[in-house]
Design brief:
binds magnesium ion, binds adenosine-5'-diphosphate, about 40% helix, EC 2.7.4.6, globular, alpha+beta, metal ion binding, 7 helices, NDK-like_dom_sf, ATP-binding, Alpha-Beta Plaits, single chain, Nucleoside_diP_kinase_AS, 4-stranded antiparallel β-sheet
Length: about 140
């Protein structure tokens, strides 16, 4: 296993409920380190660009609306096997299917308002980190 970096977001449904610390603690308790973090209120253009891979999906409008409805915490998480580990800690996209103890099981409201985002592969992690952070903002 190798030390990896992944991109994570604490979405507006969670920041609105003051869950930034509670969710970050789950990452830390599972051995991931926050090596970059900032609070942004993303524009429609930023949200559409970030989620461009989903632009043909029926939920795209709802997704962009949700992501621009309040502040988001964008983070880089570092640790052993961080990309897969973070996906496991997050749980399934639909909280109704998320395993016990996962962030989405604990905190998500619905499949749309599911509290967190995490990169799904090394290529997307690199791309998504670059979308939100300059190299100088990542301090390991
Ligand atoms: P994940 O975030 O688990 O990687 P996807 O990449 O499939 O999931 O989808 C991106 C985001 O789009 C989800 O986290 C969720 O907020 C939203 N989404 C996905 N499927 C639906 C759906 N059927 N209805 C509403 N929103 C959805
Ligand atoms: Mg995804």
């Amino acid at each position: 296993m190798a030390i990896e970096r992944t991109f994570s977001m604490i979405k507006p449904d969670a920041t609105k409920r003051n869950l930034t610390g509670a969710i970050t603690k789950v990452f830390e308790d599972n051995g991931l380190r926050v090596v970059a973090s900032k609070r942004v209120w993303m524009s429609k253009r930023e949200a559409e660009g970030f989620y461009a891979v989903h632009k043909e999906r029926p939920f795209f409008g709802e997704l962009v609306e949700g992501m621009t409805s309040g502040p988001t915490i964008v983070q880089v998480l570092e640790g052993e096997n961080a990309i897969l580990k973070n996906r496991e800690i997050m749980g399934a996209t639909n909280p109704a299917q998320a395993a016990e103890g996962t962030i989405r099981k604990q905190f998500a409201l619905s499949i749309g308002e599911n509290s967190v985002h995490g990169s799904d592969a090394p290529e997307t992690a690199a791309q998504e980190i670059k979308y939100w952070f300059a190299d100088t903002e990542i301090v390991g």
